[in-house]
Structure formats: C-alpha cells, structure tokens
Amino acid sequence: xxxxxKYYAAAVLAVWLIIVTFFMILNRTLDLEVFFVLSLIGLxxxxxxxxxxxxxxxxxxxxxxxxxxxxAIFAYIVAEKILEIIAA
Length: 88
Hints:
The protein is mainly α. The longest helix is centred in the last third of the chain and has 30 residues, at 58-87. 84% of the residues lie in helices and 0% in strands. It is flat. The protein is built from 3 helices and no strands. The protein has helices at 2-26, 32-50, 58-87.
C-alpha cells in the first residue's frame, strides 16, 4: 500500500496539471509563469499529503529536491516581476 501512494500522487498531480492546462486554454492565456506557479502549488499539496508521519521513503527525498528547485525558480520569477515593476 505504501508503494501505491507515490503512483496515486503522480496521478493526482498529472490530473491537476491537465485541469490547469485545460482552463488556461479555455481562458486563452497560456502563460508559462502561471502554469509553473500552479504546478508548484500542486506539487506542494501532494508532497504534504503523501508525507508519512513516522517514516520517510526514498522518493520523498527526491520530491524534496524537486521542491527546492521549483522554489528557486519561483523566487527568480518573483524577483524578475519586482524588477519589472521598479523599472516601470
């Protein structure tokens, strides 16, 4: 059952990204930054939900690395937006 959690998490994350993409296409605003931020939110929610209280499987360490990389990219996007506002 514990091994199935990561497959459920991957399926839920894939469904989340498909829904986000669908609504972005429906709204005719394909913005990579918005998609990235929404994918980060989805990944964080999934990571919190599958994290065990007493044991930490190996795949959680890899998800942690992925979260660190995505948060760094998110910080870059925020810094870029702040610089755009300051320059205007």
